[in-house]
Design brief:
It is built from three helices and six strands. With about 130 residues, it is of the alpha/beta class. A hairpin with a 2-residue loop joins β2 and β3. Strands 1, 2, 3, 4, 5 and 6 form a six-stranded mixed β-sheet that branches.
Length: about 130
Amino acid sequence: PYRGIGVPICSVTLLGRDLVGWANFGVTENVWSRLTPDRIATVPDFVLSVSRRHTVFCGDGVGMLDHLLNESMGKRARLMTHSCGLDRLQGLVALSSHRLDQGEADPIESLAPNYLRPPGITSPNFPQRVSF
């Protein structure tokens, strides 16, 4: 929902264990696009690696990182700590509608979650024989 602001956007999500996932988006050649691949880093490494340009930070991880980003970037960091689910839905509809108008579509079987790392839950162990 922030793509009309006119500055790059960094979407941030908390992954647990002091890790964040993020990607940068913006306009290149008048087309809204991804500027970086999805990345994972520790919180300190993330803060060190973000651009020093004016950037909008959004996503579920921003509220936990607001003080670090403000300390690191000052007024160049625009933090969107409160987001309504409807805003995200409207943004998704706008992007999807534009793609459909351009004749673009994805095969339904290709639509799946993008996991940046394996889940913390492992496969169960086989039961062990109990000796008495």
